[in-house]
Fold Chromosome partitioning protein ParB.
Amino acid sequence: MAKKGLGRGLGMLLGEDDDVDEAIAKSAADIAKLPIEFIIPDPEQPRKHFADDAIAELASSIRTKGLLQPILVRPRGNKGDEYLIVAGERRWRAAQKAQLHEVPVIIRELDDEQAAEIALIENVQRVDLNPMEEAEAYQRLAEKHERGQAEIAEAVGKSRSHIANMMRLTGLPKKVKAQVREGHLSMGHARAILSAEYPEQIASLVLERGLSVRQTEALVREARDGETKTAEKKPKASSPAEKNADTRALERDIAEALGMEVSIDHRGKKGGTLSIAYGNLDQLDEICRRLMELPK
């Protein structure tokens, strides 16, 4: 991961390292101890779901071995002795369960943007976030901290198309977001449902019938085309199966370049249709900007 693209907060923490855990481990000289009640979770923490069994397992380890890795915190403005967690909320929760009275910490003076970046990158490096948490974290960086998709991609070590595809998930209805967040729907299901006219109804059918991602994509196509065939029946060999290898390859290339879902419906001598699905107005603006910049 390139150091140049990292934000100020991560640079302050990492120095020459690109891994949050390694940087914290090397900061032994900066470790202090704080009463556990002085430490509170940051409401902007990208990770919202913590598995109870994993917390219990870590708490058991802490009881016997102690808390080996410090928690990264920052002062909470003018709140006196209160500190917000930047990285390590899972360890803090387990330490509470293990009934520790104080915990090792590293205190850093960080603003909201710096803390948000470090928290996101720590979770992405650990693969701790579910797809919805990751998508919403990228969206917050883009909207609240005015970070572009390319800048976010460089900071977290992902491709720009990955960031764009994840951010599209924030366009799902609230109910479907919850189903993704809780693990009932996969990332593949969510991307297919996103292009449906009635995503909540499609999501309900997917869960009710236990449909695979491919079956979900077929169901969305059928609903879009006004077909009445149910998902239990074998999806007919339509769009993707009838497209030749060149058309499918072109779809992939354009989708990768734009970071959006692309479909080409080629009808031979009659021409065809190129469809680009966007998730929000920012993505529509990006499409328009690129089209206008094309050489005439």
In short: The chain has three domains: 8-156, 172-236, 242-293. Residues 112-126 form the longest helix (15 residues).
